Amino acid sequence: MYSQLKPDHGYPLRAVFVPFPFVAFTFALFTDILYWRTSMLMWQNFSAWLLFGGLVFGAIAVIAGLVDAFRSKATRPAIPETIGFAVVLVLGIFNSFVHAGDGWKAVVPNGLILSTITFVVILITLWLAAARPLAQEWRFNHD
Predict the structure, then answer these.
(1) What global pTM score does this model have?
(2) How far apart are alpha carbons 111 and 109 in whole angstroms?
(3) HEC per residue, 117-143
(4) pLDDT tens, residue by residue, 27-64
(5) Is 11 helix (H, G, I), strand (E, B) or coil?
(6) Where exactly are the structural domains of the chain?
């Protein structure tokens, strides 16, 4: 099995960074729910920092995705995954702007709605990535 590895195909670089924004945006939804239920300002601050961290690692993932696009066909990101990831980042930017407001109105209901929509788009993007027939082609030579 390992003898079938192609030496010219490497690991998709973006795969190292893409999970970070997904996890950060998912936790932002959890902290938004906690803020909604408790009214403790700490949870709004956590949400804002999680959104910021997700956007920073999202930018790094975009750069890594561009590098992957020029490496080889096996590491090139698929169009549906790329569109899904771009939508997630755009929603994250808007959500970050909403969370920049003060207090209750910054999170409830608009921030909570945006966090929920972002989470749903993350799930759809992950499904598209997992359903891709060539998702694991970078590992082995099937010629």
Answers:
(1) 0.83
(2) 6
(3) HHHHHHHHHHHHHHHCCCCCCCCCCCC
(4) 999 999 999 999 999 999 999 999 999 999 999 999 99
(5) coil
(6) 13-131
